[in-house]
Amino acid sequence: MSFNIEDLAQLDQRFRTNLINSITGFKSVSLVGSISTNKQTNLAIISQIIHVGANPPLIGLLFRPNVVVRHTLENILSSEFFTINHIKEGFLKQAHHTSARWSESEFKTCGLTEEYLDDFSAPFVKESSIKLGCKLEEAIDVKTNGTHFIIGAIQFLHVPESNIGDDGFVDLEAAGTVTCSGLDSYHRTEKLARYTYAKPEYQPKEI
Amino acid sequence: MSFNIEDLAQLDQRFRTNLINSITGFKSVSLVGSISTNKQTNLAIISQIIHVGANPPLIGLLFRPNVVVRHTLENILSSEFFTINHIKEGFLKQAHHTSARWSESEFKTCGLTEEYLDDFSAPFVKESSIKLGCKLEEAIDVKTNGTHFIIGAIQFLHVPESNIGDDGFVDLEAAGTVTCSGLDSYHRTEKLARYTYAKPEYQPKEI
């Protein structure tokens, strides 16, 4: 089924939201921990996450326009620190529930545990296996639709030792990290293959 | 195992590259089709893809600094059109092989088929089930590390009709779309749950 530019413009709003949120492909999904100037913690599930660079280690998050209350973005801009915590199958429903409009801390309302590591002011999620501590490095406004692209410098990282290979590759599947699609669908994964660095001279081989 | 800011700075370069590329979580991965001013087609596997907005439909791609030859980025900037084609298990090795440094078109060298749809100048991948046609909308320089964040307006979309739900949600698993982790690992998925829109008043329910 094909949609051209006119078809896309004429779609029902909710249908288009689901459709366009799906067709990016499977997404990174994590819980972002932050803290406000009056010390209220916040936890938000976010799937607009992208690798930005390895040296220095950088990660990017995209936030919707700051027209209504967006605690996470406000907290990042004011405190400059935030955490990214991978989601596991065991607390998937709690993680999804953080996306409701809470006035209290989502840690409390959704039943997840604050953890403080390496002098980071922002809270980590104790239940997560993989946790990143980040400092705001750059905040970019996307003119086209008013979204905010936040670049974080990764300053702290926790990964279970048994999930890190000799070459630094992290086995996310063994760590229990889930992926998502669309706005509300969560998936576990099953490894198909890991391939050698691609060269024109030979076919990729499985590692 | 924890790494603080000094630990991360002192890691072996290759180890850090694998580590930091892994800890974003599972990623969207697709083949980006483009065409040069002298009409040579190009196909590149890219995992730095992010949903930017649904109305208007926008998608973002992040490209490494343009210090060496980067055909895809050059083609997008010169022609303004590109395609994003989901990767299926059946042509995973060919898709990975596009990341080698080819001088000819990757369609030819990697054994994938050019397809032209809806008057798009950029080539689609015939073997893909889900295909997006995009027009360059905004090119943003990330100052921190010199990467380029490209915003594309989605102007054409092909999805098998059987994979689109009544609410617009696309069943990527049924469509055979794969996900990736790190630089070189590919995975199929298995659905865990789809949840209702989260509200404070009740626990999320499975859809």
Could you characterize what this model shows?
The structure is a homodimer of 207-residue chains. With 207 residues, the first copy, chain A, is of the alpha+beta class. The first copy, chain A, has a single domain, classed as Pnp Oxidase, Chain A (Roll). Chain A contains 6 helices and 12 strands. In chain A, a hairpin with a 2-residue loop joins strand 4 (49-54) and strand 5 (57-63). The longest helix of chain A has 10 residues, at 13-22. Chains A and B meet through strand 1, helix 2, strand 4, strand 5 and helix 4 of A and strand 1, helix 2, strand 4, strand 5 and helix 4 of B.
Question: Mind sketching the topology for me?
Answer:
Two copies of one chain form a homodimer.
Chain A: E1 2-3, H1 5-10, H2 13-22, E2 30-35, E3 41-46, E4 49-54, E5 57-63, H3 71-79, E6 81-86, H4 92-97, H5 106-110, E7 114-115, E8 124-125, E9 131-141, E10 148-158, H6 172-175, E11 179-181, E12 185-194
Antiparallel strand pairs in A: 2-3, 2-6, 4-5, 5-10, 6-9, 7-8, 9-10, 11-12
Number of β-strand runs of chain A: 12
Number of folding domains of chain A?
1
Using the coordinates shown, work out and report the CATH topology of chain A: Pnp Oxidase, Chain A
This entry's quaternary arrangement is: homodimer
Structure classification of chain A: alpha+beta
Taken from the alpha-carbon principal axes, the silhouette of chain A is globular
Second CATH tier, the architecture of chain A:
Roll
Query: In percent, how helical is the residue content of chain A?
Result: 10-25%
Widest β-sheet, arrangement of strands of chain A: 3-2-6-9-10-5-4
Mean pLDDT of chain A: 96
Biggest interface between chains: A-B, 109 and 109 residues
Instruction: Calculate Rg of chain A over CA atoms.
Output: 18 Å
In CATH, what is the class of chain A? Mainly Beta
* Uncertain stretches of 5 or more adjacent residues of chain A: none
Helix/strand order of chain A, N-terminal first: EHHEEEEHEHHEEEEHEE
Percent strand of chain A: 25-35%
By CATH, the superfamily of chain A comes out as Electron Transport, Fmn-binding Protein, Chain A
The helix count of chain A comes to 6
